[in-house]
TrEMBL record:
GO terms for molecular function: hydrolase activity; purine-nucleoside phosphorylase activity. Keywords: Glycosyltransferase, Hydrolase, Transferase. The active site is at D204. Residues 17-225 form the Nucleoside phosphorylase domain. This is Purine nucleoside phosphorylase DeoD-type. A purine D-ribonucleoside binds at H5, E179, M180, E181, S203, D204. It catalyses: a purine 2'-deoxy-D-ribonucleoside + phosphate = a purine nucleobase + 2-deoxy-alpha-D-ribose 1-phosphate; uridine + phosphate = alpha-D-ribose 1-phosphate + uracil; a purine D-ribonucleoside + phosphate = a purine nucleobase + alpha-D-ribose 1-phosphate.
Amino acid sequence: MATPHNAANMGDIAETILLPGDPLRAKVIAETFLENSVQFNTVRNMFGYTGTYKGKKVSVMGTGMGMPSIGIYSHELIHFYGVKNLIRVGSCGATQENAKLGTILMAQGACTDSNYAHQYQLPGIFSAIADFTLLKTAQEMAEAEGYPYIVGNILSSDVFYTETPEWKQWAKMGVLGIEMESYALYCEAARAGVRALGIFTVSDSIVTGEATTAEERQNKFTNMMKVALETAIRL
């Protein structure tokens, strides 16, 4: 059944899905790695595809930028389309010197400056964490391939252009990098009892000022994509 944001029918989307923020990255993943891929969504140009990877049905779909956007798409994927495993594949800005450009960061947990969890009316602060099976599998895949990776905490922020250097305070707490979606994804997955994981390629360093280009972020984060796909087929 179609939603206001997704034209797919039930059965069009696999139980395991990769979720890049950039819909063009979804297109690249489908065209590069999936066999017999079929596009199931173009609404708002948020492209979604389903195909097979090494014989297993896998989907990929863009989610846009920010927690409100991924909150909509992940909620619909879970509750309208029966998705059970959601793997965010994104980019992030590093807040630690050892997180070099191209390093894969795996979000064991997600901090936030957002009020996203307010909707659950909890009597405290919710700690948003990854599914351990997804995290362990992704770590094993990266280790086996020899890809540089770090596992730890990230910050999902509501603000891209900040007035103050708040990242330094998060860095003091060991936060590896900043992105804008995973806290909401982890909340949606926890509330529904399904699995979620955020993995990122370091696209820029807030510490050193180094950065990749938009084209590189769209097309060349293949190590992260391979880790996510290899994780997907082992569930």
